[in-house]
Amino acid sequence: MLGSGRREAETVWMQSRAQRIHATLVQAFGPAEVQVQDDSHLHAGHAGAAPGGETHYSVRMVAPAFAGQNRVARSRAVHAALAAEFAGGLHALSLKLLAPGEG
Fold it and tell me: 7, 35, 77, 103: most buried, per Cβ within 10 A?
């Protein structure tokens, strides 16, 4: 019988990168809205692209945590939250990060 920690780790491992990114962002930022799109097929043959994809993503997120932060601070916070994904093959993110009420 597996311990719950190991079972959770295996479940996370079995998810797609998009699902892991989504779950990480929800946990880190408690967003009102988050959309994660795999754009890897648009970058086939480019630097950082892998044959199996899951390397290039677009993220749109609206989170109260971004209120009062500039674009650079928001981006740095998301990159820090996703450090493990970058270490595991995530190559690029296109980010649209908004506070509630922003267009």
Answer: 77
Nearest Cα to 25, choosing from 74, 71, 72, 89?
74
User: Would residue 54 count as lying in a domain?
Assistant: yes
| 7 inside domain | no
Lowest mean pLDDT among 9-18, 23-32, 94-103: 9-18
- The packing angle between helices 71-81 and 17-29, to 10°, is 120
Q: Tell me the whole-structure pTM to 2 decimals.
A: 0.77
Q: What is the DSSP string of 19-60?
A: HHHHHHHHHHH--SEEEEEE-GGGGTTSTT--TT--SEEEEE
Q: What is the CATH number of the domain that holds 33?
A: 3.30.300.90
Residue at 6 is within a domain: no
